[in-house]
Each structure stands twice: as C-alpha cells, then as structure tokens.
Amino acid sequence: MNRSALISMDRLGGPTGSAERGSLLVNGEFRLADKIYPLPDMNIWRLADKHTHLQDEIHGFAWLDDLRDEGGKPAVSLARRWLFEWVDRHSGNRKEHFSPQMAGRRIIRWLRNGRIILTMQDQSRQDAFGQALGAHADVLRRHRRSIGTGLARIELATGRVCAEVANGSGRDELTRAAVALAKECRSVLSGTDGIASRNPEELFHILQYLNCAAAALHAAELVPESDHRNSMDIAGAILRSLKHSNGTMARFHGGGDIPTAISDRAVSEVGQAGPIKIRSAMGYARMLSGQTSAIIDVAAPPSHAASRNSHASTLAFEAVSGSCRLVVNRGSGQWLGLEDRLAARATDAHSAVEVNRDSSSLLETPKIWKPTGVREFAKVPGEVRISQLPGRDGLTVIASHNGYVPQFGLTHMRRLDMSRNGGRLWGEDTIWAKPGTDRQIHRRSIEEGHGNGAEVASRFHLHPDSTVRMLSGKRRVEVLLPNGEAWVFRFEGIARLEIEASTYLDELAFEARSSSQIVLRSTTRNGAAQFRWEFRRSPKAT
Q1: What's this model's pTM, rounded to 2 decimal places?
Q2: Which residue from 472, 457, 481 is spatially nearest to 537, judged by alpha carbons?
Q3: Residue 226 pLDDT class (50, 70, 90 cuts)
C-alpha cells in the first residue's frame, strides 16, 4: 500500500458528496434519490442486506463522500467504522460485490478519502486495508475488456489507475493502467462531438473521473497520456460551452442540475481558458449576449444503447437572464417512476414544437429481453441542419429537422435571434410539407385523422420561481423573474396563445415543482404553419 500517495490524494478531483446526506447518515437515515431509509442499529451493511436494490449504491461507497463533506467527528468516526466493517466482512475468499465496475467505483472513493481512513489507525488496520486495496487492484488488472458505454468505461479505467497507485504498484503496471485509460478516452470522447449520449451531466462526471485519474498519476510521479490530457481539455471546453450566463449547466438528454460551484471547480482543473475554444459542441448551439444566454439542441438524439436516457428534444432551447432561468425544459426525473420518466422524454416536456401531440423522436416498444424501463429510440430525425452566424442585430441560429416527416410529412425549422444587449430573444417557427412525397404523406395523415390540418404546438416551459400572467388582449404574456426583471412574450401569426400548467423536475431537491408554460397553438393550412414570437425584457412590470 502506498500510504503517502493515499494521504496526498485526499479530496482529489472526482465525484462529490453531499453534506446534507452525510448529516442524515449521522442521524441514522440513508437517502437515495427521494427515498429515506432508517439504518438498523446504525449499520449500513444490515440495510444493504435488507434492501437488495440498495446494494450497488451502498457497496459503491458514495456515502463515504457524504460523510467526509459533513465533516464532523461523528461523521468521520462512522466512515471509518463502516469501511473497516466492510473490509472485515470481505477478507479472505469472500468476494461478493467485487465486479470490476463495483471495484473501480469503490476504489475511487477510498482513494479520495485516504486521510480520514488511515489517520489514527493501528498497523493491523492499515495492513487489512492494504490487503483490500491489493484485492481490488487484482480484479481491475485482470479485467481487460471494455464494458458499458461512456461514463461506465471511464469510471472502470479510472478505478484501475487509482487501484494501482493506491496499491503502490510498479511503474510497468501503472503505465499499463494509464495507457488503458487513454484508450478509453479515445473511444468515448470524439472531439467536439463529445460523448454519444449527448448528456451534459454525464460528460461532467467523465471530466471529474479524468481529473481524479490525472491527480492519482501525478501523485505517483507519472504524467497522464496525451489522449487522457486531450480528453480533459475537450471535455472542459465542451462543458464551458454548455454553461449559461449564470453559471448553470444546460439540462438536456437526461442531464440534471449540477451545483455551479462543483461544475466550476471541475472545469477549472483543466485551466480557465484551455487550449480549445468552441461556441457550439456536442450538438448544441449557445447564444450569449450580456447577462442573457440561450442553449439550443440542434442535433438528433443518440440512437441504440446511448439513447436509453435521451429525450425527443431536437430544436428545444433553454434561456437564462441574469441569475434566473427564464425558459426551461422539464428535466430528467431519473428518480421518478417509469411512466413519469418516459413522459419527461417526450417533446411536449421541452421548449420545442410538437405536431399532433406526437414527439419528434419515437421510443421503441418494450422488449421482453431488456430490463424493465429500458427504452431506446426507434426513430430519430434523419436530417438536422444548422447555421449559426452573426445577425444584423446580434446572434442568429437557424436549424431544421425532419423528425415529423415519416408520420406527417412535415419539416420543422426554427430561427432564434438574440439582440446584442441580451434584452430581446425572438424566434420564428415554420412547419411545412415539402412538395412531392412529403406533401402526399401530409395529405394522407390529415385524411386518416379526419381533420383540416395538423395540430402544431410551440411550448415555452417557464421556471417555477417565475410569476406568469396573461396581459389584456390575450396576445401577450408577462413573466416576472425573482431578480425583479419583467419579460413580455408576444407573437405574430395565426395561432392561439395559452398559459398551461407544467412541472419542473428539480434533480437537486428531488422534487417535481408546479410551474407554467406558454403555448402557441396552430393548425397547418395548405401544408404549412408559421408564427413569430419574442421575449423582450421590459424596463418595469407592465
């Protein structure tokens, strides 16, 4: 065991804990998502034995970060007690919960908390811990095959690096682990295309792991491989491009809220500016003027296994003004039940355009050979086009997709413009059937639906902290933000303006909060519908 390396790597980059969850543990309660479980006799292992669905979380030792961040003496004492109970339970030939993925996840937590683990421990305890480290290193060393996608592969390779460093392995083993991680970096991160899932939160966790592995290698007096370093730079640059003007991260494709201070720290570890500067990446375009920003999803969702948490959000956008979120998407709701999670993936849960209450990407029917709730996209837009350019008065993004062509023969084009001072965000949505085959599909869909045209709805979900009211004439809506700003929404075109109920899924609080959405409804005429709209900052409430 490399005790000095363990001590020096205390609190190195990587997954972060929650002092709030740590406080619950000290008071005899274990929290997973929105559920709280009492600890029988203050024993976390008895809880894991009782609730098998908690075993991966508990044996992965994420709670160790929570107790460290709580920081009090009772929390530190509890962390040591539970860790060495695990070591005693799994000494000898008992190798339960020793899958490569679990071993990698656990070793990262141990390495990040070496100081509180080893301080004030006698030699026998240190020896037992060293033997456990060696067992983890053996498991990860023998595992040569990549498993999973994206985050899981980086986590496993990072765990191997950390295990070799903590175990005090020789230079050859350390180098092999570093090279294996670099190989995974090449596979998982593809330039400014980012990762396959297009999930900003997943990319953030990947950067955390890469920072963690880099710190571990530096502690062992080794330099990370070039592909490892390049991937850190790329991930940092992409994440900077996905940050709003108030520092919050975009929430798309299953990605949830990330505390701003934590995301800032992870990105800062690869340099404030970094060698790579980008405005658009991973299928997103960002507009930034003054204290106003908008981030738009301008690509198709991923397909196959990478789409298991993805959303039908093509051409959806978010907008922030000052410190406040203005336009949002509902969120991922990963802690919710299956039906709620599926609903959050639909187009109508996003600030986007839906046609005939259908989504721009369609989920597969349930497959009996897949785990319950695993649903990939069976159909995504085959073509998404984008132009991002300086406009006459500021910034302009023009994008289109053909996701509604197979069902309805309709293409959607969205134009977004932002003024140079950030006080105006305006757009134009055009839905039309191109001459030829698309027009035939559209006519057939109308005939089968017994209607006069396709129903089109453009939705603008608002943050629950805002106050919304319809103004006189029912052609304008006022949105009051917590920072005192008033924004007025208005539109042009043949459409009906409505304010409807919505829900904002707050991942940090594990809460579904009641909110509102602005909806423009229209019907295609002669195979087309078009309306213009804008959000304009008002000098004072109307």
Answers
A1: 0.90
A2: 481
A3: very high
Residue type, 244: H
Spans of all domains in the chain: 1-143, 158-274, 320-538
Q: Cα-flanking dihedrals φ and ψ of residue 371, to 5°?
A: -55, 150
Helix (H) or strand (E) segment spanning residue 499? strand 496-506
Residue 172 to residues 4, 161, 165, 209, 211: CA-CA distances in angstroms? 20, 12, 12, 22, 21
For Cα atoms 459, 465, 466, give the angle at the middle one, nearest 5 degrees: 55
339 by Cβ neighbours in 10 Å (0-12 / 13-18 / 19+) ranks as exposed
What b/e string do you get for 340-349 counting C-beta neighbours within 10 Å, with b at 16 or more?
A: ebeebbbbbb
- 3 state DSSP class of 78: helix
Report the largest interatomic distance among the alpha carbons of the chain, rounded to a whole angstrom.
82
Number of Cβ within a 10 Å radius of residue 232: 25
Query: ∠305-306-307 over CA atoms, to 5°?
Result: 90
Digit-coded pLDDT (tens) for 126-185: 888 888 888 888 888 887 666 677 898 999 999 999 889 888 888 999 999 999 999 999
Q: Of 3.40.50.720, 2.60.40.10, 2.70.98.70, 3.30.420.10, which CATH number belongs to 320-538?
A: 2.70.98.70
